[in-house]
Amino acid sequence: MIEPTSGDILLGRGVRINNHPGNEAYRETISANAATYAASTKSDKTSMSTKIVTELLNSNPPRRFLEKSETGKWQEVPLKRAVTKTSQALRDVARDRAKAAGAVAATKSSTVSSFQQTTNNVSNNNESELASSSLTPAAAAMPSYHPPAPNLYPLAESNNDDNSQQQQNVLPLEGLQQNVSNLPAAQPFESLGGANSAVDLFLEELSSGLLDNILTASGGADVLGNSDDISLGIVDRSALADGGGAMQQEVALFEWIKSSKMAYSSSHGLGGGGMTTYLESALDIAIKLTDYIIKSDEEKEDSTSGDGAFNHSVPLECISVERTVVCIKDVVSMAPQEDDTTVVIKCQTPSRDDPGDIGDRLYAVVEEMMEEADGNATKTSSLDSMNLNSDDDNCPPKKRQQMKPYLPAQLEHLDLPQPVITILSNLLECGQGELVSDEAYTSFGDLLVDLKLLRTEGLSRFLQSPDLEISDRICGREEEIELLNSSFNNKSGSQGVIITGAGGVGKSRIAAHIFELTRKEGGLVFATKFNQNQDVSPLAQIGAIFNDLIDLFATVASPSTLLSLSNDLENALGIHAALLHEVLPSLPRIMPSCSQVMYHVDQVNMANSMRFLFCKLFEILLSYQTGRITMLFDDVQWADAASLSLLSSLLQSNEGAKRVYFTSCYRDNEVSDSLLAWLQSISGFSLEQIKLESLTPNGVNQFVSETLHLFPRLTRPLSLVLHKKTGGNPLFLGQILSALGGSGRASSLTSSPSTKGGEICFSLSRRRWTWDIEKIEDLELPDDVVSFIVTEMKKLSADLLFGLKVAACIGSRMTSDVIDILSAELTAAFTGTTLADILHKLAQKGFLTEHVCSRKAECCATSSGSLRFEFVHDKIQEAAYQFMSRQEQRLNHMRFGLALYPQAINKSNDELLFMAINQINVAGPESIVDGDQKHIIAGLNLNAGKRAGERSDYQTAFALFQHGMSYLEADCWTNHYGTSIELFDSAAQAAVVVNDLEAVTLYSNAVNSRAKCFDDKLNCIRVKLKALIHGERYGEAMGYFLEIVKDFGEPALLPMHEIQEDLKAMNSIMKGLADETLLSLLTMKQKRTIALVKIYCDFSDVLLFIDPSLVPSIALRCMQLTVQEGLCSKSPIVFALYAKSLSSIGTSNDIGESVRFGRLSKTLQERMGSSDCGSLDMMVYYVMGLAQPFQALTEEFKLSMKTGEQSGDVFNAVASYCLICLMSYITGEPLTHLRRKSIDCIVQMKEQNMMAFLGIQSLFHSQLAALIDGPQIADAESVDDVIFGEKKALAAAGKDNFEALSSYEAHQLVRAFLYRKFDSLSSSSFFETISDPTIPNEPFRVMAFFFAGLASFHLAREAKEEEKKWMKIGDTLLEKMECWNKFISWNFQSKMLLLKAEKMYCLGETESAASLYEQSIKSAHDHKFIHEEGIAHELCGHFHLEMGHRLEALESFNSSVQCYINWGALAVARRLEVFVKSTFCSESL
Fold first, then answer.
1. Domains, in order of start, for the chain
2. Between the chain's N and C termini, which has fewer beta carbons within 10 Å?
3. Do 1344 and 1306 contact (CB within 8 A), yes or no?
4. Which of 281-295, 639-653, 857-871 bottoms out in mean pLDDT, i.e. has the lowest?
């Protein structure tokens, strides 16, 4: 039952719901986003609503959307409905605000008109009228400024008759100030202080100093003239509120500055939005004008004219603030652009050519402002002194040597924000003559860069703090970020990215950028990091991602969605989901049934099963997820083999999917063989490759500038030194900055004797970070980051240093369970504190990060507690580990492992178990002297290896078994025989799975040579045989099998013709036993007999390719053992083998028993629930074609393939796929569809290295191509770019591959008949195998028999001298069809009827033949065999043509062509069309 929490959002009506805390918080979220929502496009609005809902659901704790059901109980709202509700709420708030703004605008317009009319009545001066009407009331009270010339404001001039109307169209500056748009965002001023704070002074001085004096610094002239415009960034939009437009109007720039300051100063108490607008506008103008000055300088230098004229329309010397006018565009008639304000500069030919050098002009930008700040100004306004010129045009500008010295106290007195202080002080320093500092500006270009940076990144970028915090922004990676953005946006068709580089270069930080992109579009992000020590349970890291995904889905999904999801998972995963539950404890939340089934999967198949189950689970979860999912797998160079294999499967199963983005990071200087193999295996996927190098000097400067909150121009000298010392490694750089600036000292560093510390410190007088670059250059630093961190660690106290050592030994993270256990073990090691307290202090010092898990208890079934500590970077762990000697490392590992292991057993905690064993194994056998203790640890490894095998990580299991054997002493086979033989047995079994045949042989031979009895050898005997079979080393397998049979004392295997009587005798016995009696036989007890039956069944699959004649002998012997000693896990296979052998005898009674035992094998498997019978469906295939429609058999093979995938039995899954293709061919499925299936099947066979099956499938694929494209395709070098031509494929299959040879002969026969190549038919060797009892009568062979029978009757008519021979063969095959038709007419009726029609045709019984042809056609049509229908039509046409019935023949041929086309045998249809056209001429098709 759901109970709402304070964070949930409740849907409904009423005061209680309205006042619910979650609803109030929700309304705040809506209010904060409404403006952005209103300005967004339709698609962006949907994405925005989805993102808001997703963030709420993903918050900690999750905030659900709830409503009451019809029963009055609270229930979760579906995601789609929550998004719809959020969109509606955003629209409502935006609409209400728009209405309110309209009402305010109407009131305001009335007030302004009244104020303007009043102003008109008291003034007769046009200039005064314009100025006063353009100012707010506060600004109008200021002393009027009289422009030096009457033509400065041409748009303001008008006659008195038009004056009233003109003033009605003048835009009040207050409106201008509040409606500046299309400008970069700046830091909100609310966070910088209230009224009369540094912000007010900043605006004052920015306008009086920076903006005004940037103009004056050009050396402006006091003359008038005409000029072009330069575009800036101010536009009025106030008139648009009522749908009207604004007249274009010019306002003096200095008047705009002056009135703006007053307006924002008076309105500051009401909020900072207006000041933000002013700051943005003023910076934008300053940037544009500075850029204009630079361009004027460049054009002056490039000018070749000698008459005083310049290429630029506005000479540099003519730029003056008095000549600068803000021109407001008519936004109705002119669509606003990115920059839609104009500054107009009025000037004439300059009267002076010497505006001063660059230092003079830069200093002039701020000199006048400093005079005023010092209280010595003699002018009424700083605006009056903006020109450096006196009234005398010939007076040269003031030089720096004549100006006042730089007074830092003046800037300090102004209490300006630090960015402004920096700019002003650096401008003032330009006036120090020979004493100018390195930080002084040297060009307007540097000034322009700083101004732009201040505008684009805001004030917060440069706000100083005495606490040094290392920047977490991505610096110096512009190209990589651009590539990453392109990849994520799928511009290159990428499904993910692999980020490589050395340790500490910032791979994880770059990967985190993808998270930001994902969240912006409302997607989900999941991340995991592999550990260097691999100290967690197998697949735990990938499992963590899936557990989080499951928990999120279970939290946000509605009950109906969860029910639907559970049903989908049960259908896809079946009982095998119990295996997945082993590593995904959260799975029952979305699939309750998975925890209610106990299921065992054979070890060989479990790893494959796990990969399939993970992929299928992910596929189904994705089908319920609308947003994008990004997955990050960090430090994959330390991933275990099972995890890497699973990652490959996930990539493959999602290839082409646009809703999943995979990200992997690894160190390219620590690539292991397993990682290299994995990289090669995924090279075919569309993954972007990004290699990170160390930062360039510019990248380092960005990093340092961000960290110290200074302009990059100022930090460049320091950055060059740090780049040289760190090589540009970001981690190293951050560590050095922390060491040098964390406390203002660097005493722990090995430095020169003169170094006293304080290399980087915060200056309280300058309110910014400063440094002693000479001291930093003299520091002798280690060459790598690890050595540097080790040096830093020497400063720690003994307790903290020991805590760091403990964490380094345990691994990259420590959970609360581990901390509690080790705290009890290490109590004596600490003085008055606990391990948790020490780790917390280490986190405060920046060595560790502390996390608190807030997931619900049901989500944390395997979580080792709620608290965990992780190293900030694995290089820090590496440094802490290197701090210990090898002996200390071993002692700590052994101590911690032995402390953890008992608790892991008591708590049944796999994570603790593997961590404990890993700690012990890292210590190694050298850490233990006592033999009994070594034996105990060997047993611990044995148990842990078995557990790893149960979780499908056989690479880990194999390693653990090997570790266990390393603890065994020389006398282990004498003193610890049981443990020794079990370890070697288990290691041999794991070696089969990891495909290490040499290890299998090594451990098997060790067991065979030291086993006390034959029974103790049985497991290794079977393991070695299976290894040879899986490696397709069939010759060796045959020899070893015969050796095994001999050792067991078994009779020699005999071919079918020698045991046929014994088989019939056994059949007589079996007929006397009822079905239930056979299914209820006792359970086999003898270990040796069980092993023998398993070995027989394992090897029977191989005989299919080597010598099928021996299979009946194995079937007979296994059935004898079953009758004598009972049933075992392989008994379903025994029944199927026996059924297959009976079908070869061919009598009606034997076929009936064959079908009976085929059905019994399936029933027995269902009763036993055995997972050891993967090949059962393949065996039953040879029988059940005589018991059920071929189409139904195809569906069974599809189910078999699914079961094989679920259980991880890849061999039988792919083999079932092969049979699906074959049965589809037999049933007449369209060949074009079948061709695609065959290609996919071939690809899977190649991936699994199933070369024997690949040969058979390749021959089959060549047959499909020959029927579609023509027989010549079979002789091509390759077919469909997936296989060799037919001849090469046959050669690749091997001359001893009986199944391949038999398939080739059958395909040749069918092709020769369909293309009417009867000459080659007469010499076909296939006819020699018709009566061979050793060859089972499986469906494909039955189809070949059908074509062989048709060919025999045709040859009997054509080859008169061999008529009897061919009639006899035809009669034999007809008898088989008649026999099989008695069991299932669906499959054989049409075939039997057509063979009878051909026989009657041979015998001259034309009436019977004609009738039988029609019956065959109808039967094929009724039973859905389109290809057989086409063949019957064609043979009927030839019959009628021979009889002289041309119309009937033509009709039959036409029908045959259509059937062939529908079947997809286009080349066969074309062959018949050609024949018909040449035969019938005008009667053609």
1. 9-108 (no CATH), 173-300+310-462 (no CATH), 494-692 (3.40.50.300), 697-793 (no CATH)
2. N
3. yes
4. 857-871
